[in-house]
Write a structure and sequence with these properties.
By secondary structure, this protein is an alpha+beta fold. 34% of the residues lie in helices and 24% in strands. The strands form 6 sheets. Strands 5, 8, 9, 13, 16, 19 and 20 form a 7-stranded mixed β-sheet that branches. A 5-stranded antiparallel β-sheet has the order 10-11-7-14-15. The longest helix is centred in the N-terminal third of the chain and has 31 residues, at 99-129. The chain is elongated.
Length: 527
């Protein structure tokens, strides 16, 4: 074998055999290659062929590169090795290439990091604000096309009848002064006066209950094609509710009545206003007749602040639609499910306010105007007329003024909406009763009324029906949650840095490795 063939064969054997000895003999010259032993960097050894005047020969050329093994090498070398292998695109150009390239990519990197920090700040602020939105869906009732009728609370504007006041001498004037709802007027009532003395220990709630409108004022009831008048008067489909609105009618108290969509399943109720029994205070009202509320059977009218007025001589049509609303708990929402029920039925914002009002009156006077429906432990005692005039009304007025004060910074009542609520959206329309209709209903009038004009002056007709059998679902949802936050941050990371979750893990691991190498190990060596 010639010399040229010999060193070609030796070089090829050296680079193809990883177990080659450290010292390699070449036919032309001998040199020692420190292969993978010299710390911190193993030199790369490559053959270099050239010709000179002595003939052909091969020299061994050594090229040094930054170390990567086991955290060895200088701090700059480790950053170089990380930038060359990281998935953060463009990071390696900060350490290699000419000076212009390194400067340009360094500037881009700084700008992109600032943009990332700004976007991260905005995303964190949006996430911490917990913005919400509403998801609205419509569902059909399962099974037969039936919808649960609401509980219908109807209260007369004439809270105490004139015949009751006439039966108790002196009570008419006393009640007229009390019904002004003005503390400066009621505080002047002297119960030492012989006219008022017999009523000092009368409970206000008993006056409303005994002197309230009679059940016969509910003249007729029809459900589908069935007559439900007897069911109302027997207590099966109607109860009486005592509240600050008076002694009211509570129709469908247990929520058992069902209805279909449209006129096919309507509930029709005929009410008699009995204007001859209006007291002197009732006759001063701008509105006569009734107020009506539509609500879930676990609610009570005494806790509901709004109602619809109904005047005599009109027929009212109430188009209902059932709505179920679901709310979020803190921090995104305000609902509270820690208390399910209170003294006014299912715990919600309005019933909580009613209980808060009673608590304030109990604290100030030791009594309330009317005990709540769920007074099982008898913790709330009714006020006598004397207690109400001397303390109760003033305490109620103080609570009311504090609650409606929009400039007040402190909470009067810590009441929050329920996390799940059922309510009925109502669209009311009305039309005049015709004289022909009134003439046919003279026969249903109570004693003392016998003409068409009496019907037109006293009769109120209420038709309750559902627009359709669909239920509206309103769900409060988080508009910007954890997944939105991750999506925004990940999008900016990918757009400006070409990074992913693994890139962040990789970078964090590298920083931990640097801290271990240059901080912890150095501290241990110093010790």
């Amino acid at each position: 074998m010639s010399n040229e063939e010999d060193y070609h064969h030796t070089a090829l054997q050296f680079f193809s055999d990883p177990d080659q000895e450290d010292t390699v003999d070449y036919p032309v010259c001998q040199c020692t290659c420190p292969y993978n032993k010299a710390p911190p960097l193993p030199p790369k050894t490559v053959p270099h062929l050239h010709n000179n005047h002595h003939g052909s020969r091969m020299d061994v050329k050594t090229i040094s590169e930054p170390s990567t093994a086991g955290g060895s090498g200088t701090f700059h070398q480790q950053w170089y090795q990380f930038s060359d292998g990281t998935s953060l695109h463009g990071f390696k150009f900060i350490f290699e290439g000419n000076r212009i390239t390194r400067i340009a990519f360094s500037i881009f990197m700084v700008l992109f990091v600032f943009k990332l920090a700004w976007q991260l700040r905005e995303s964190v602020i949006s996430y911490m604000d917990h913005p919400t939105s509403s998801k609205i869906s419509v569902s059909n009732v399962e099974g037969p096309a039936l919808v649960t009728f609401p509980t219908i609370s109807i209260c007369s504007h004439n809270m105490v009848t004139q015949s009751y006041l006439d039966s108790k001498p002196g009570l008419d004037l006393l009640y007229e002064m009390i019904d002004t709802w003005q503390p400066d007027v009621t505080s002047q009532i002297d119960f030492e006066d012989p006219r008022f003395a017999p009523y000092a220990d009368y409970y206000y709630s008993d006056v409303l209950k005994e002197g309230g409108p009679s059940e016969v004022n509910v003249l007729q009831c029809s459900h589908f094609t069935n007559d439900c008048t007897s069911a109302l008067h027997s207590g099966e489909a109607m109860e009486r509710e005592l509240s600050m609105r008076g002694y009211c009618y509570r129709i469908n108290p247990n929520g058992k009545l069902m209805g279909k969509g449209g006129d096919y399943g309507k509930l029709s109720i005929k009410l008699f206003s009995d204007l001859n029994q209006y007291s002197s205070t009732g006759k001063k009202l701008a509105q006569v007749g009734y107020s009506v509320q539509f609500h879930d059977h676990e609610q009570y009218s005494g806790a509901i602040p709004n109602s619809y007025w109904m005047s005599p001589g009109l027929i009212y049509k109430a188009d209902l639609s059932l709505t179920r609303e679901t709310r979020l708990q803190p921090p995104a929402g305000r609902c509270n499910d820690t208390v399910q029920y209170n003294t006014y039925g299912r715990n919600e914002e309005n019933s909580c306010l009613a209980q808060c009002r009673d608590d304030a009156m109990m604290a100030a006077c030791g009594c309330v105007l009317v005990p709540p429906p769920y007074n099982t432990d008898a913790n709330y005692t009714p006020c006598t007329l004397k207690q109400w005039t001397q303390c109760g009304l003033a305490a109620y007025d103080n609570w009311y003024q504090s609650y409606v004060d929009v400039n007040r910074t402190e909470e009067v009542c810590y009441c929050y909406p329920s996390c799940r609520e059922v309510f009925y959206s109502v669209s009311m329309s009305s039309s005049l009763l015709s004289r022909f209709y009134a003439k046919d209903h003279v026969q249903f009038l109570p004693k003392g009324y016998n003409g068409t004009n009496d019907v037109l002056n006293n009769l109120v007709v209420l038709d309750v029906l559902f627009v359709n059998t669909q239920e509206l679902e309103i769900e409060q949802i988080v508009a910007y949650g954890w997944t939105n936050f991750l999506g925004d941050v990940g999008g900016v990371l990918g757009l400006f840095l070409g990074a992913s979750a693994f890139s962040l893990i990789e970078f964090a691991f590298f920083i931990c490795q640097l801290v271990w190498t240059y901080v912890i190990c150095a501290w241990r060596d110093d010790r």
